[in-house]
Design brief:
single chain; seven-stranded mixed sheet; 397 residues; three-stranded antiparallel sheet; alpha/beta
């Protein structure tokens, strides 16, 4: 892709799991040279998360680590730490997502690195944030979905709490990290100095809960689980059809009237119980039952054609196989099977932001990265022989 605004920017990536790797993958797609630092014996934990695997690598690892070079380095060893510090001295960006306080105790916290390299943009991606009673607690996406209230509003009303099926908190936290880094790099152009960027899974999750939290503070009304429904708009949910499910979004009174006409329920739009959105929210159960009975009469495709003709937003509830095969997915060219990854949801001047390389094999770039950091070939050999570093069989490009 010709849009590579971060070309020439050097990033040291000491992250694992999903949020941090997604952040640095995006930076790499934008042109940055990203060096992923991994444990010599096993690498990022997500390499072994599965099945499914693709040629022995966990698919989550492949999905979040494109556009990187792999440096297998034992940073708990003083010789490995020295190599990491050398890399940070010449880097523009340093990203870490270790357990709270570990980077500082290990000698590569923000104060230490920014003193050595004042132009460095240092990004910490944490669990609960850098202040407060939970600042030292570890966290993963489902833990944060639980702690932030997301699970309390996800699932069917009569069921228990449900984790969202995609790692929304991880991905959004990674995007916040990338946005903060890009903004700090822009500010560096003006000031000549780097910055310390902080974001966390919990802060991201609170942002995702914004209207729920605001609504509770405003009214004292506790939000609950509504399945596919939405607390503020009715109808805004999935209905069972004769052969599947259809998501319908009638977001205003005009669209509701069009929906009723398409369903051959024109009188329903005039019913005082349903004539306005606040009235429909108040009487959602009665309206849900009425619409559900009608949607069950015909198959999904028939309803899609009818609602589409009426201008009512609707979409079938598809499984992953259907999504992969859908002409819209093909038209957007998001899938990158040759790179074992997915393209990015951004286009510039009509050109999609794509991954440049597939996720690397563990240690594939150890020798090249250490030579670039100023080590001699003999010194690299000594680090490898001692087990402080490891080399792979070449990059999985």
């Amino acid at each position: 892709m010709s849009f590579q605004p971060l070309a020439g920017i050097r990033v040291v990536d000491v992250t694992g799991s999903l949020a941090g790797p997604h952040c640095t993958e995006v930076l790499g797609a934008l042109g940055a040279d990203v060096v992923k630092v991994e444990r010599p014996e096993s690498g990022d934990d997500t390499r072994s998360w599965g099945p499914p695997f693709w040629d022995g690598e966990g698919t989550l690892f492949l999905a979040a680590n494109a556009n990187k070079r792999s440096l297998a380095l034992r940073i708990s060893d003083p010789r490995g730490l020295e190599a990491l510090l050398r890399l940070a001295n010449r880097a523009d960006v340093f990203v870490q997502s270790l357990r709270p306080g570990l980077a500082e105790r290990s000698g590569f916290g923000p104060d230490a690195l920014c003193e050595r390299n004042p132009r460095l943009v240092y990004c910490s991606i944490g669990a609960f944030g850098n202040v407060g009673p939970l600042r030292d607690a570890p966290g993963y996406d489902p833990l944060i979905q639980a702690a932030s209230g997301i699970m309390s509003v996800t699932g069917e009303p009569e069921g228990g709490p449900v984790r969202a099926g995609a790692s929304l908190v991880d991905y959004m936290t990674g995007m916040w990290g990338a946005l903060g880094i890009v903004a700090a790099l822009g500010e560096r152009e003006r000031t000549g100095r780097g910055a310390v960027v902080d974001t966390s899974l919990y802060e991201t999750a609170l942002g995702l809960m914004s209207y729920h939290l605001t609504g509770f503070v405003a009214s004292g009304s506790m939000p609950g689980r509504l399945g596919t429904e939405f607390p503020l708009i009715v109808p805004y949910q999935a209905f069972a059809t004769r052969d599947g499910h259809l998501m319908v979004a009638a977001t205003n009174d005009r669209l509701f009237a069009a929906l009723c006409a398409a369903l051959e329920l024109a009188d329903t739009a005039e019913d005082p119980r349903f004539a306005t959105n606040p009235a429909r929210v108040e009487n959602r159960i009665a309206l849900r039952e009425l619409l559900a009975a009608r949607f069950a009469d015909e198959p999904t495709e028939a309803w899609l054609e009818r609602l589409g003709g009426a201008g009512v937003p609707a979409a079938p509830v598809q499984d992953v196989a259907a999504v992969v095969a859908h002409p819209q997915t093909e038209a957007l060219a998001m899938l990158e099977p040759d790179l074992r990854a997915l393209g990015h949801a951004l286009s510039v001047d009509g050109e999609r932001l794509r991954n440049r390389t597939r996720a690397p094999a563990l240690g594939a770039d150890t020798r090249a990265v250490l030579l670039e950091a100023g080590y001699s070939s003999e010194e690299v050999d000594a680090l490898v022989a001692s087990g402080v570093a490891a080399t792979g069989n070449g990059p999985a490009r």
